Amino acid sequence: MSSQNIFQRLYLLGKIWLARLRFIAVLVAVGGVIAYWDTINAYYEKWMRPLVGQETALSPDTEYWCPMHPTIVRDHPDKCPICAMPLSRRKKGDKEQDEALPPGVVSRVQLTPYKVAVAGIETAEISYQSLIHEIRAVGFVEFDERKLARITARPTGKSRIEKLYVNVTGQIVEKGEPLAELYSPDLVVTVKNLLDARQNGNRDYERMARDRLRLWGIDDEQIDKIVQTGKTITHLIIRSPIHGHVIKKYQVEGEYVEEGARLYDVADLSTVWIEAQVYEDDLPFLKDAVDKKLPVTATAKAFPNRQFRGTIAFVHPHLDAATRTLMVRFDMDNPHHELRPGMYAAVTFQVPITQLDLLPPDADDQRKQKYH
Predict the structure, then answer these.
(1) Mind listing the pLDDT tens digit for each residue in 346-371?
(2) Is the Cα torsion angle 157, 163, 165, 170 positive or negative in sign?
(3) Contact 303, 337 (CB under 8 A)
(4) Helix axes 185-200, 220-229, angle to 10 degrees
(5) Alpha-carbon span 53 to 51, nearest angstrom
(6) Taking a C-beta distance cutoff of 8 angstroms, is the pair 312, 349 a contact?
(7) Contact at 8 Å (CB) between 110 and 67?
(8) Across residues 132-161, what is the average pLDDT?
């Protein structure tokens, strides 16, 4: 191999390594710029930013002022000596000629309609109002426990459910409406005893048979009809004791049930409860609230523009140790069944300050000792 070929190969090999090193150097440079970009940018701003004196000299028509305290004006960037906020920059001459301030007014702050809306600022005409303490609480709509009914199988022994007239949960039922039909062997025996006692003139046995039938839900009119016709009945009709809707159905047709077995739960929603939590600090304002039937208003998320009215019904005697709140119950009229159990509700009620005893018991004695 000649020396010329060796030099050519070394030359090509050097060019290849130089190209690779150049590529690596470019990658290192790009990575360094990315890694130290914040530092490079900070140095750039430091070197390129004009000095304060130079900036003031270059902008003689610029001044700095405090929007919160318009009397604070500087010719250079600074902070307000009153509120410590950075001064805002403006051109000289942009300051509008404000009207003369009334006596006793130090300054005036002007806000745009957008800032007024964002800040939630509201204005109202000055007027005389009663001194009240407003309490707001959040709670849940619950069933009125006084208007719940549980329908059970009343006949003794085992009874068979022949038919369910109300076979769907949530169905509306009227007072006295048939719910279920039961076949009861004990009913047959009791009716036969009633007819035998009536035929034999045994008033004691007849009275006992009538009382048993009444306990099973058969009214006097039906009993008199049985006595008149002399026919034995084998099936008992279970009727709803209240108007409402079925919140739970326990049985199905054809099932055998014992005495006292649950058949339905029915709820009347004409009135409901709202149970809300009130903070411990508001406890003194609830004194005598139940006796005085303090009125309350409630709103639900489903009806934001509707106000439901009611009264305070009960204040629980104990606090929740975890939340330091007190449960308060409100009776709410619900004629159209718009408030439904499980809903969130916001409750607001106002307590007149005149109902509160804010002074200590010996306040009069202390006042007399002070002036005598």
Answers:
(1) 999 888 776 455 555 565 555 555 54
(2) positive
(3) no
(4) 70
(5) 6
(6) yes
(7) no
(8) 90
- Collapsing DSSP states into helix, strand and coil, what is residue 162? strand
Each residue of 102-116: pLDDT tens digit? 777 767 777 778 888
Instruction: Give me 334's structure tokens.
Output: 């619900």
Tokens 């707001």, residue?
A: 136
Amino acid at 252: V
Question: From residue 219, how far is each of 140, 176, 190, 239 by CA, in Å?
Answer: 39, 11, 15, 11
User: Rounded to 5 degrees, what are φ and ψ at 74?
Assistant: -130, 160
- Cα dihedral 88, 90, 93, 98, rounded to 10, equals -40
Alpha helix segments (H runs only) across the chain: 3-35, 37-48, 52-58, 113-119, 185-200, 203-215, 220-229, 363-371
Max avg pLDDT among 78-87, 217-226, 277-286, 339-348? 339-348
Stated pTM of the model: 0.56
Kindly report, residue by residue over 53-77, the tens digit of the pLDDT: 455 444 677 888 888 888 888 888 8
Cβ-based neighbour number of residue 26 at 10 Å: 10
Look up residue 320 and give its two tokens.
């929740």
